[in-house]
Amino acid sequence: MAVIYRVNMSDLSIRTEMPGVKYAQTGGRGLTSAMIAAEVPPTCHALAAENKLVIAPGILTGTGAPCGGRLSIGAKSPLTGTIKESNSGGQGALALAALGIKAIVLEGRPADGKCYRLIVNTDGVKIEPADGLVGLGNYETVGKLLGEFGDKVACISIGQAGEMKMAAASIAVTDVEGRPTRHCGRGGLGAVMGSKGVKAIVVDPEGGQRLIPADADTFKAGAKKLNTALKAHPVTGEGLPKFGTNVLANVINAAGGYPTRNFREGQFEGTEAISGERQHDVILERGGQIAHACHKGCTIKCSRTYLDKDGQYVTKGPEYETVWAHGADCGIDDLDAIARMDRMDDDFGLDTIEAGATIGVAMEAGIVPFGDAAGAIKLLEEVGKGTALGRLVASGAEVLGKAYGGSRIPTVKGQSMPAYDPRAVKGIGVTYATSTMGADHTAGYAVAPNVLGVGGSVDPLKPEGQVELSRNMQIATASIDSAGLCLFVAFAVLDDSTALDGICEMLGGLFGTPFTVDDYLAIGRATLAAERKFNAAAGFSPADDRLPDFCKTEKLAPHDAIFDVADEELDQVFDFVE
Amino acid sequence: MAVIYRVNMSDLSIRTEMPGVKYAQTGGRGLTSAMIAAEVPPTCHALAAENKLVIAPGILTGTGAPCGGRLSIGAKSPLTGTIKESNSGGQGALALAALGIKAIVLEGRPADGKCYRLIVNTDGVKIEPADGLVGLGNYETVGKLLGEFGDKVACISIGQAGEMKMAAASIAVTDVEGRPTRHCGRGGLGAVMGSKGVKAIVVDPEGGQRLIPADADTFKAGAKKLNTALKAHPVTGEGLPKFGTNVLANVINAAGGYPTRNFREGQFEGTEAISGERQHDVILERGGQIAHACHKGCTIKCSRTYLDKDGQYVTKGPEYETVWAHGADCGIDDLDAIARMDRMDDDFGLDTIEAGATIGVAMEAGIVPFGDAAGAIKLLEEVGKGTALGRLVASGAEVLGKAYGGSRIPTVKGQSMPAYDPRAVKGIGVTYATSTMGADHTAGYAVAPNVLGVGGSVDPLKPEGQVELSRNMQIATASIDSAGLCLFVAFAVLDDSTALDGICEMLGGLFGTPFTVDDYLAIGRATLAAERKFNAAAGFSPADDRLPDFCKTEKLAPHDAIFDVADEELDQVFDFVE
């Protein structure tokens, strides 16, 4: 039995709903985007009662599918004004799926402005006051909740940034150890959760069960294929477990696409000191853990635990994007300082990409100098204090840039560009420009064939072929995000056709119907179509599908590259949508 | 001889250009919008070198046309992202016109970030360092400049807000007394001037001359017609000179359209204390001046000088919009406090509408309570200090609202709605929604027939007829703004056909060709068409031509009105544009 819970925060009522035929074969991003597109007025204010927050495990989540534990959360974004889905690892999705929950939909807004917590278990959903949690960071919040509900529960929570309804606020999801280290980071969805007056959702899977596929043999065969492919691929089988996502730092720096000091250069002189290789050594020296899984059933294990010099736990990872955002983009080469900022971001509940990029813009504005790690930490501390400056930091690069008169703001649709300079990696530039959710590398990771030699090879410095590449990847990604699979399965999928066969067999096995690659990609196409339609109704037009002008006018060293994919070409990315 | 000066602030060079046939018969907004649309990349950052600031007197400015002294300034707006024209009274336009200057175009941006002043006289334009002026408010800036250049010069300058490149920064123009009281207020054009590194433009008309019409008799006959109509109309002949623009406070409050406490109510209990009638008495009691002209040749004289209790000059007016923004919209009923804030706005160089509306949003966010005049003044003081909070106040309601998690932000395209609630005055709501420049009452003043019984009568509470009304007014206004006439001539034009005849005769007389009403309105249509085209290329679509959602969902007392002009109707406003 699959169920959708609608939690009305205006009158504190709960309604139970069957997904029906319409939503029976979707989940994750496919479900969140379909529901937001169908139910949220596109022009509403993202923090108004009319917006909804849809929390949905992926289609395959809870089936035992390898790397299938992603949790999608969707809403109209307060950061971008577009539709938004952001997904996270951790235990949240698995716990929800074990309870047979297709989605929890937060609707309305408490008239009294009070803060609540939701308790979700086999009895359903209960709304309770969150008085003891108000104003706490994510670490203390989930610490208290696990203390009260036991360490088997998963928590989905917001920190101070979400409570303050900041546009860079994330939603934290607890990992295997019950730490709030995994985040639906992008697009400010934590602010939407904050606007609904929900501080935390405790999901107790006790008494729940694994989803039983209709055709268990086909499912199992598929799972095995994917598993084998993941183990065999050098990225998912070796690179990611050993060095984590930050294995990319040296690679992207060497390619001249590692954005440095607010996207002024493409190579950072301090890369070695913050690279995945150095991080690997530091972690092991201090007794931290590499090859750590962020949720049960992850076979890639790109996570790690980072300890300080005294061997005390600081944070997970940190991930490639986080290291870049607080590192190269700010001219900072101090891994310990970066780890501390990662911990602060997770605790306040901030998207690490947006937070770091915003500090980069603040540095360009002269608030603190580039390279000043202590100054960057102080800026972040302001967020916790709720000062005007802290609110600017937590509102993202575009807002801080505006308040400080900046003109080089590295955002698309209000969201900061991640750790690949679009001038030197043009395929990802197409994705940044055209993604339905603002600048986002995960929406269509063209870096793989542009730089990594995965999924073929497309010259990163030439405009040719990037649009087709990005289009195909955006479709495939929307399918992956709907399936609830970790995006990193794509490395195997791109190079090994048995991986994709495996995914289709798992889906076919689950539903008990034949499931082709076309069926699979149709999920992605339909999802993108719904998202594009929402955005058009919200006021987005082709001219919004553009990179910031400086990417077209300022040459990026060392390749002296500009972004030169023609506007007319960018407008062809979604040529499959009506 | 008419001339366009192009001032390149990147290499500090000046180029002199003839307007050519293309620009021979236009001026003011018609010229600024045509040049911006032709020369500025619509997707550029408004503070980037690619943007241009075009400063142009109206077509009739300098001819002796009554009320013909408006100065248009245009650019891509850092506040709205749209094309923008903002016009002002004062002596600036007359001084430029006397020198035969069609436009001064500020281009590029100083690489060294230094600050300059321009000296404009019969010799042309000179660029000089502005070292002694950096960081000063407008009053001190123009005080120094008039001390140096004499009291015959006109100054066009920015205060601290413009230097900081704040999105609510205005451009000040000196009045007849040489005070920086007249402002191109809206759209943050002061930030564009700041980004060009130009602190002030000194215009010395010495040696210049009045424009000589080709057909002086026709021109004179037209001027006389307009003059007579202005004197005869009760608004321009009596109401405005006696009570100033703030004569509207009681009228709009009585109509239930006076936005109170951040647009929560339509009537303010403190209106009487801040009304134009009370203001009239206070001004005369203290020895201030009513019926004051903001520039030579103004026959309406709606300006006034406001003194404090000790008889010391504080500020001009203050105007209706300013009194509302810092008064009713903030729940403040203290005319002296409002006058002090008006003076601060003028000195820092802030749009008084945006500044007041932003304080209203800050009050709703709980930064200071509604009605707290001292708190409001303190917020404004932060602007001068350049603190993070001050920068938020100077960045406008949308940015401050975002940083404080607000969801009732009274803006369209990022610009605050002025002093008429669109739910109770629906014609002006159509103008706010669809204007090419964000929420702006002057773009199509439907209040006249909606509330004032001028230009016929259209029920303000019904959706019917508002689109046609707004369309016609937006066209007529774009023509008036191009002619360089004060918008207030429209009161006479709407009720007395001889006024419009007079305008056409002045234009025909000036050019020495027959000039029909159709010719006149064609200027407005062409201007709007160019503006719409620019905005579309900048990413604006029909879904951007909407009021904030709360206007459609929250009923406004006392009429319990919502804004219910259908979206499909709004999309018909510009049906005359390709």
Kindly describe this structure.
The structure is a homodimer of 578-residue chains. With 578 residues, chain A is α+β, with helices and mostly antiparallel strands. Chain A has three domains: 3-203, Aldehyde Ferredoxin Oxidoreductase,  A, domain 1, CATH 3.60.9.10; 214-243 and 422-578, Aldehyde Ferredoxin Oxidoreductase Protein, subunit A, domain 3, CATH 1.10.599; 269-420, Aldehyde Ferredoxin Oxidoreductase Protein, subunit A, domain 2. Chain A is built from 25 helices and 17 strands. In chain A, the strands form four sheets. Chain A has a six-stranded mixed β-sheet. A six-stranded mixed β-sheet of chain A has the order 8-7-12-9-10-11. In chain A, strands 13-14-15 form a three-stranded antiparallel β-sheet. In chain A, helix 7 (216-232) crosses helix 21 (489-495) and helix 14 (352-364) packs parallel to helix 17 (397-403). Chains A and B meet through helix 6, helix 16, helix 17 and helix 23 of A and helix 6, helix 16, helix 17 and helix 23 of B.
